[in-house]
Amino acid sequence: MAPDPWFSTYDSTCQIAQEIAEKIQQRNQYERKGEKAPKLTVTIRALLQNLKEKIALLKDLLLRAVSTHQITQLEGDRRQNLLDDLVTRERLLLASFKNEGAEPDLIRSSLMSEEAKRGAPNPWLFEEPEETRGLGFDEIRQQQQKIIQEQDAGLDALSSIISRQKQMGQEIGNELDEQNEIIDDLANLVENTDEKLRNETRRVNMVDRKSASCGSYEQSQADDQILSRTVVEI
Questions:
Q1: How far apart are CA 55 and CA 175, in angstroms?
Q2: Helices (H), the chain
Q3: Given this model, what pLDDT does residue 150 score?
Q4: Which residues, other chains included, contact 120 with Cβ-Cβ below 8 Å and sequence gap of 6+?
Q5: Which of these, 43, 112, 129, 184, is most buried using a 10 Å CB contact count?
Q6: Is 19 or 141 the better-scoring residue by pLDDT?
C-alpha cells in the first residue's frame, strides 16, 4: 500500500523543524563566542520559509482529505492536533531565531513527545473504533465510500418517495379542479331550471287569471238572459 502523502509530508516537516532548532543552537554558540555566522542565519531563514510552506501544504492536504471523505472525522481531528503542534513549534522556532524565545535545545526536545519517550503506542491507534480497528488506509476509505453509497441510496429512496407524493398531490389537485367544474355546471343547471320554473309559474298564474275573468263574464251574460225572460213573462 502506498504511503499516505500527508504522513510523508508531516515527517519531513518535523525533520525540518528539528534541523532549524539545531542550527539556531549552533548560531547561538557562535554568538556567545563573539563570532558571527551569516551563512547559518541565511540557512535558518530559508529553512523557516520551507517550514512555513510545508505547514501550509499539510493544511491543504488535510482539508482536501476531510472534505472528500478520504479519512474519518476522528482521523481528521488527530491530524489537526498534530498540525496545531507543528504551528506552535514554528512560532517558537521563529521567536528563538529572533532571540525572543526559549533556547533551541528545549524546542528540539519538544519535537520528541513524552509518549514516544515512554514507548507509548502510536497516537493514531488511540481510541480506535471497533469498525476501523486494524484496518489500513485503503480499507478505511472503502468503508467510508460504502457508508456514503448507503447514504446516497437512502437519499435516492427519499427523493423517490417525495416525487410520488408530489405526483399524488398533483393528481388530487387535478381531480379537485374537475370536481369544481362539475359543481359549477350543476350550479348553472340549477339556476337555469329555477329560472324556467319561475317563468312557467308566471304563465300558469296568467292563465288562471284569464280563466277566472272569462268565467265571470259568462255568468253575467246568463244572469242577464234570465232577467229578460222574467220581465217578458210579467
A1: 65
A2: 5-32, 38-67, 73-97, 104-110, 114-117, 137-233
A3: 82
A4: 114
A5: 43
A6: 19
